[in-house]
Amino acid sequence: MTNQQIDFSYAKYDFKDDIKYKHLTAKGIDEQTVRTISEIKNEPQWMLETRLKALKIFKSKPMPNWGADLSQINFDDIHYYASPTDEKFNAWDMVPEDIKKTFDKIGISEAERKFLGGASAQYDSEVVYHNLKKEWSEQGVVFLDMDTGLKEYPEVVRQYFGSVIPITDNKFAALNSAVWSGGSFVYVPENVHVKIPLQAYFRINTQNAGQFERTMIIAEPGSRINYVEGCSAPVYSAGALHSAVVEIVAKKEAYVRYTTIQNWSSNVYNLVTKRAVAHENSVVEWLDGNIGSRVTMKYPCIILKGKGARGEVLSVAFAGKGQNLDAGAKIIHQAPNTTSQIISKSISQAGGRSSYRGMLKVVKGATNCKAFVQCDAYLLDQASRSDTYPTIQIDEDTTTIGHEAKVGKIGSEKLFYLMSRGIPEKDALAMIVLGFIESFTKELPMEYAVELNRLIEVQLEGAVG
Predict the structure, then answer these.
(1) Per-residue confidence at 338, pLDDT binned at 50, 70, 90?
(2) What confidence category does residue 14 fall into, taking pLDDT thresholds of 50, 70 and 90?
(3) What is the DSSP annotation of 380-426?
């Protein structure tokens, strides 16, 4: 019972569309590329200036020399803007047939009908479909693609753009700020509770493409919102780059949950920056599932800025052959009586590498804070690897901190026990792994949990030996 492996079936997502693009910029990034993107979108002058400033910052910052190996990224061999259409549709039947077929295969339209309060579908650089159910729009909820948000709510976007993640934050945040396109703009009025999730789905189709969506969520005092995003791309021999930025502002007593089910293909570099600011007595939760990609570097961050604020990050990573998933979380306690929890679970097989990289910080004056960090990892064979890089910085004596980490293999006795009850080895292995990540899946909407479990269980024939 060695070299136990789980296979992920990517067939549902690995298809390529022959699309004629309305706009496709030449490969490479320079000032003209940025100006072209801004001109196509007919943006205000301040946004163009922000983009150009960010471009200079991107050019000036070195590549990260820690974490995953990024040396194979060739910024001059990437299309930074690819748009199949200038139109955006709020009725599924109006979406061009070839694009609609893509999202129908993935199941977006069915998901919207059954259990979503609103849905958005982005194809390469542009959102092609966006819709919010009438009951939420009548309560003042705004759910738009980011480009339309900029047009219809320019002052709100200007106020918050770069306020949580400055364009100087890191090289890839600067890149996103220079060439961003698409993403979601969500605004929830005071005391409005959106009881059904809103979902955005991001699809890369073009070879040698980059996708740089920008998402902004503003939750006014007392409001509640649950936002879910999914991602996929076909497999190409050349790498694709996904570099998103997500900024969340949770005001007094607001609740925001942001869920990601990332299933990029094995040629995608997934390098994103996600951060939230939680004000007084607010709650921010990140649920972060990482299955695909060649490389992922992602560390959702919560800044607990107001007293009594609470932050939680629950993440799962599955690293298979050729994958390096370097993920984790950052939580910064800046106010008294704030609480936080980070739970990270990873599984590595077939030589894959998973890493937890986290930071927990309590600043001076943030009294009576409580925080807990837990990192658990399973190695399914001897060729795989798991690493933990925790950083904990406490500058306040009244803080209560807990930290634990475990790395192990699936014991033969567990498999033997299940197999002795008549359960085939592949099914027994799946049961153990699904039990390991149950703390994550039980927090997902039922349909997403079923899909995640299916991805893990499928095609186990011959995957253990």
Answers:
(1) very high
(2) very low
(3) -STT-EEEEEEEEEE--TT-EEEEEEEEEE--HHHHHHHHHTT--HH
Higher local confidence (pLDDT), 126 or 184: 184
Which structural domain range is residue 261 located in?
23-457
Q: Measure the CA–CA gap between 205 and 116, rounded to whole angstroms.
A: 24
Bridge partners of 326, per DSSP, are: 297, 355
User: Cα 378 vs. chain centroid, distance in angstroms?
Assistant: 22
- For 30, phi then psi, to 5°, come to -150, -175
How many residues comprise the chain?
Answer: 465
Residue 12 domain-assigned? no
What does each C-alpha distance from 296 to 322, 324, 420 come to in angstroms?
Answer: 12, 7, 38
Q: Which amino acid is at 456?
A: I
For residue 264 the two structure tokens come to 């990029």
DSSP 3-state of 331: strand
C-beta neighbour count of 52 within 10 angstroms: 14
Residues ≥6 apart with Cβ < 8 Å to 462:
none
Average pLDDT over residues 4-23: 48
What is the spatial distance between Cα 54 and Cα 61, in angstroms, rounded to a whole number? 11
Q: So what's the pLDDT on residue 320?
A: 84
User: Which residues fall within 8 angstroms of residue 26, CB to CB, at 6 or more apart?
Assistant: 33, 79
Is there a domain that residue 8 lies in? Answer: no
pTM of the model as a whole:
0.85
Q: Count up the domains in the chain and report the number.
A: 1
Q: Is residue 40 part of a domain?
A: yes
pLDDT of residue 89: 55
Is the distance from CB of 369 to CB of 398 less than 8 angstroms? yes
